[in-house]
Structure to design on (165 residues):
């Protein structure tokens, strides 16, 4: 294990073996909570993140289907906390960006995204507030860290697909 990624992967694979499943996606939150005390602290934290993140993804899909952006934002906030505390793949600068994003009135939620250990954050923001959000958050981040962030405004759209021939 020569990288933190490989270390996390091995910890999750060990947790899956403990639960007797091919992957942690096959463990329910209830089953995890029932058996979690049997795991060592690190493996328990890593598995908790994966199991609860899978549940959050399903809940977010349902909330999006109902147009409930507040719930999606809440789930994004929970996701970031789990990535930071249980999976331990965030950094101070990224936590600062997420915190500043959340403090904007137009933001429903924010979380880190990507492979972890730094990188990017994504925020769910009201379209009418997007420009102010980007400018304000960038300015506040630079004041807090001395680093100039790249902030992009984008809109959700359907992903790539195959056109019928």
């Amino acid at each position: 294990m020569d990288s933190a990624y490989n270390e996390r992967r091995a910890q999750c694979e060990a947790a899956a073996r403990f639960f007797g499943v091919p992957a942690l996606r096959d463990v329910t939150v209830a089953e995890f909570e029932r058996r979690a005390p049997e795991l060592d602290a690190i493996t328990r934290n890593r598995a908790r993140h994966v199991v609860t993140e899978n549940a959050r993804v399903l809940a977010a899909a349902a909330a999006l289907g109902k147009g409930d952006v507040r719930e999606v934002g809440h789930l994004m906030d929970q996701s970031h906390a789990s990535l930071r505390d249980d999976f331990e793949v965030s950094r101070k600068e990224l936590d600062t960006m997420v915190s500043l994003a959340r403090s904007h009135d137009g933001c429903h939620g924010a979380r880190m995204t990507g492979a972890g250990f730094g990188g990017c954050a994504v925020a769910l923001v009201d379209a009418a507030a997007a420009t102010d959000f980007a400018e304000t958050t960038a300015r506040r981040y630079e004041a807090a860290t001395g680093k100039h962030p790249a902030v992009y405004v984008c809109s959700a759209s359907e992903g790539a697909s195959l056109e019928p021939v």
